[in-house]
């Protein structure tokens, strides 16, 4: 990417998009094109095509999506399928029509079969049934991967896909019902500490395992791959290390300084038992994450405390 290149970051107000913008600016990319969803609703095909025709970006990071945790995915199944398909169809096709030099599509580790062998190699895609709680979202993400592959094969487009593991960081969504587990834990432990509660309640059994990557590390990986990776096959982004939800809770509890106990609401879903990324392809290219889990949780907690705009 040339420093003066025009770069469109779709979803720049989100956790990942805002981190991408910070990293791009840090690295000297300042010709950024940004639109909020109220300025440009990416579900509106005509509006997306008009925007691309007018702006003609050189590079596109597609980090706009309908995103949420296990319960949001399971509850708003139609919205997760329709909105994500619409957003990615419009942005990817318009990028082809306007000769975008390179596009990066962000998928998710939920594209892998629920019971796939661990760690998850890129080649395991479509080798088994998906986890039911997020099947609509995963189907949309798989369609996005296949669109990038197809536009490369048929039209020679330099479109790549990356599959991030579970993310957390600055500007996360802290809604208690719709968020992912880490922001939910930060808010639950913090508010319980303030109230002096004796216990907090988390979801499921605590036994599923998850891998967590700090969003600023993800943004660094995305910029690295935009400049150093150009193949049809998508690539995993993660740390290659996971913890049980119970172990995660113990870390968050310690960082926040909550002294009570933890109850488990087993009427809430556990989701997939484990989804640990195989990151050997990414490490082979020379990229590795920098922020470890406890350090990242401390940074996210500081942001939660200090940022008056945090999404609670
Ligand atoms: N968070 C996670 O744990 C993971 C996320 N990912 C992927 O990373 C990407 C970014 O996720 P994340 O930053 O967490 O999500 P956020 O919810 O934080 O941000 C999503 C952004 O998408 C934008 N958006 C949503 N709908 C529309 C629309 N109809 N038109 C225009 N913009 C829209 C929103 O814009 P606005 O603010 O202007 O409304 C929002 O800023 C997604 O593709 C997601 O699937 C992958 C793995 C894990
Ligand atoms: C990134 C990924 O995120 C989603 O998948 P998920 O990893 O299952 O999502 P999650 O972060 O919401 O939960 C992880 C685990 O944590 C447990 N858990 C405990 N207590 C709380 C809790 O209070 N809130 C939440 N949300 N989960 C909790 C919860 O029961 C589960 O076992 C996909 O739908 C899809 O969006 C996707 O790709």
TrEMBL record:
Q: Which GO terms describe its biological process?
A: 'de novo' GDP-L-fucose biosynthetic process
Record-annotated site: Important for catalytic activity: 108, 110
Active-site residues per Swiss-Prot or TrEMBL entry = 137 (proton donor/acceptor)
Listed A to Z, the keywords are: Isomerase, Multifunctional enzyme, NADP, Oxidoreductase
Q: Which residues bind NADP(+)?
A: 11-17, 106-109, 141, 164-167, 180
UniProt cross-references to InterPro entries, sorted A to Z: Epimerase_deHydtase, GDP_fucose/colitose_synth, NAD(P)-bd_dom_sf
According to the entry, every stretch annotated as the NAD-dependent epimerase/dehydratase domain falls at 7-238
What biological function has been recorded for the protein in this entry? Catalyzes the two-step NADP-dependent conversion of GDP-4-dehydro-6-deoxy-D-mannose to GDP-fucose, involving an epimerase and a reductase reaction.
Question: What is this protein's name?
Answer: GDP-L-fucose synthase
- Name the source organism: Aquirufa rosea
Q: Which gene holds the coding sequence for this protein?
A: fcl
């Amino acid at each position: 990417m040339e420093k003066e290149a025009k770069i469109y970051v779709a979803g720049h107000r989100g956790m990942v998009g805002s981190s991408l913008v910070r990293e791009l600016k840090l690295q000297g990319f300042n010709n950024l094109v940004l639109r909020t969803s109220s300025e440009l609703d990416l579900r509106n095909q005509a509006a997306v095509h008009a925007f691309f025709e007018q702006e003609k970006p050189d590079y596109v990071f597609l980090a706009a999506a309908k995103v949420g945790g296990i319960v949001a995915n399971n509850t708003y199944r139609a919205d997760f399928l329709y909105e994500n398909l619409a957003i990615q169809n419009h942005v990817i096709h318009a990028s082809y029509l306007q000769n975008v030099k390179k596009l990066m599509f962000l998928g998710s580790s939920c594209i892998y079969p629920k019971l796939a062998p661990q760690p998850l190699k890129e080649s395991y895609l479509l080798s088994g049934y998906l986890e039911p709680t997020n099947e609509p979202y995963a189907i949309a993400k798989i369609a996005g991967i296949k669109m990038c592959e197809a536009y490369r094969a048929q039209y020679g487009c330099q479109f790549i896909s990356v599959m991030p593991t579970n993310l957390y960081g600055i500007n996360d969504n802290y809604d208690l019902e719709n968020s992912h587990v880490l922001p939910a834990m930060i808010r639950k432990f913090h508010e319980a500490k303030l109230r002096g509660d004796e216990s907090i309640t988390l979801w499921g059994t605590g036994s599923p395992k998850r891998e967590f990557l700090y969003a600023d590390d993800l943004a660094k990986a995305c910029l690295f791959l935009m400049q150093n990776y150009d193949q049809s096959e998508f690539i995993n982004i993660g740390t290659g290390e996971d913890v049980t939800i119970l172990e995660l809770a113990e870390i968050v509890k310690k960082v926040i300084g909550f002294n009570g106990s933890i109850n488990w609401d087993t009427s809430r879903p556990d989701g997939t038992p484990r989804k640990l990324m195989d990151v050997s392809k990414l490490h082979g290219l020379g990229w590795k994450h920098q922020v470890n889990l406890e350090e990242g949780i401390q940074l996210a907690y500081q942001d939660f405390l200090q940022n008056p705009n945090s999404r609670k």
